Amino acid sequence: MSGAGRIAAGALAAAAAGPAIAALVPPGVLLSLLAQACIYAILALSVGVLARQNGMVSFGHAAMFGAGAYLAGIGLGAPGLLPAEAALPLAVLAVAAVCFGLGLIVVRVHGIAFAMLTLALGQACFEAANKARGVTGGADGLTVALPREIFGLPAATFQRAEGMFLIAWLAMVALAALAALLARSRFGLLTEAIRENEERARFLGYGTVLPRAAVFALSGGIAAAGGVLYVLYNGFVSPETVHWSVSGSALIMALLGGTRTVWGPLAGAAVYFLLREQLVEVTERWLGLLGILLVLVMVFLPDGLSGLPRRLRRRHGAEA
Amino acid sequence: MSAPALLARGLARHYGGVAALRGVDLDLVPGEIRGLIGPNGAGKSTLVDVLSGRAPGSGGSVRLFGQDITGLGPAARRHAGLARSFQRTSIFPALPVGAQLDLAARRVGATDAPRLLDELDLARLAAVPAEQTAYGDQRRLDLALALVGPPRVLLLDEPAAGLTAEESLALADRLRELARARGVTVLLVEHDMEVVFRICERITVLELGAILAEGTPQEIRRHPEVVRAYLGSAAA
To answer: Which ipTM score applies to this complex?
Structure first.
C-alpha cells in the first residue's frame, strides 16, 4: 500500500474509533473533557506541524487559536452579514492568510529569536483582545449565540459533549491526516530539507521563505480551526484564550508527545488532559508535577512519547 | 570565440578594515578543471563565497557564460547554472539519500539523479537517512547534490576534506570522470596537492586576497614565489 493509502486507511480507522469511544464513555464530565482534549489536541497539532516541517518553536499559537475563535464568534454574532456555514471556514482562512503575510517576515528569524517573536506577537494579540472592547467584549469576553442550525446540525449538537466530542474527534483526525499527507508530499520534503539545512536548499535553487511562510500559514489555520470548535462548544471566548499560557500548554502537549511524528502532539494532548485531571485531584501544584514529567520525558525520551516505539525497535534490533 | 565559463573581474571583499579579496580576476575556460590553492587565510573560500552569491562582494563583477550574475542570489545563480559544494559537509542529515538527489534534480528539471547515485556509489544508500551513512558517503552525497543537473560551472570547496589519502584520490578520479562526461567546468579549492596536481589542467594561486600566480601544474610546481609562499620544498 502506498504512503498516501496507508494514511487514508489509518485516518478511516481512527475516524471509526470516535463513535466507539463516544459509546463507551458515559456522557458527562469525562466526555466533555475528551471533547476539550480533542480541541486542544488540534492546537497542539498546529504547534507540531510548525516544529516538524519548519523546525520552529512557537510561544504564540494561542493567538491563532483565539483569533479563529473570535472571528468565528463575531461572524456567528452577525447572522445577517454571513451565514454560519461561510463564517466558520472564513475565520480559518482569514487567520491562515494573515499568518502567511506575517510568516513572510517572521520565518526569516530563527531559534530563540523566533520563539520570542511569537511570544511578543501573541501577547500583543492578548492585549488587543483586552482593549478592543467594542469588538471582542474586552476582558468580559464575547458571548456567542449560535444560530439554530449549522451545516444542517442543530446548534445543541455543537454544545453537548457527545456531539462536540465526535465533531472535534473527526476534525482532529482529518487535520492530522492532512498534516501527514503534507509531510509525505514533495512540498513536505522540501520544507523538511529547508528545516535541515536552509542554506543548502538555497544553493540547490530553492527559495526558502515562501515554503516556510506557507507552513506557518497552514499551522495557523489548523490552530484557528481548533479555535472555531472552541467557540462553538463553549459559546464564549475571552482574552484568556489568547494568553501565552495557552500557547505554553500547547507546546507542552506537543513536546510530551513528540514532534517527529504527526500523531505525537495528539498523544501529548491526551496525556496532558488525562494527567491534569488526575493531578488536580491530588494537589494544587499539579503544574509542578506536570513540569517534572516533562523534564523526565525530555531527558529520557527526547523525541517525546511517540519516539518510544522507535526507541524500543532499535533496542530490540540491537539485542537481536 | 565562446564566452568564458566564469569570468570574474576585480572581485573585492572587505571585512571591516581587512581586505579578504583585493581585485581578483579569474577566467575559466569551458570544460576545464581549475585548481585554486593558497595558504590558510589567502581568501580561497571567500572567493568561492563571492562567486556563488553566499557573500556579497565589496566590488567587481561575475559573469557566467557571458551572463552578468553579480547581483543574483544563490538560488538564481543555481538556475543560471552555477553550483557549489561546501568546505563542511552540507547535506540534509535526516532525509534519505535518494530523496535529497530527487529534490535537487527536480528544481533544475534534471533526470540524472538515479545515474549519479550509481556513479557515486550511493544507490545502495538511496533509502537511508544521510545521517546514518559513513563520512565518505556523506562527502560523495555533497558532491552529488552539487553535480546534479548538471550545472555549467561547479565550485568545489575542499571536497576531499577529512577523507583518507586513498579516498581523496578516488574521489578526485571520479570527479574528473564526471566533470568531463558532463562537460562541467570546475573550480576546485583543495589543500591536498596530490589531488590538485592529479586532476587540474590549470592552477590559480591566491595569497593575501590577490592572485600570486596562474599556470599549468608543472609551471606552478616550479614557480619560485608559489614554492616560497605555499608549496615549500616538498613540491619540487
So the answer is: 0.90
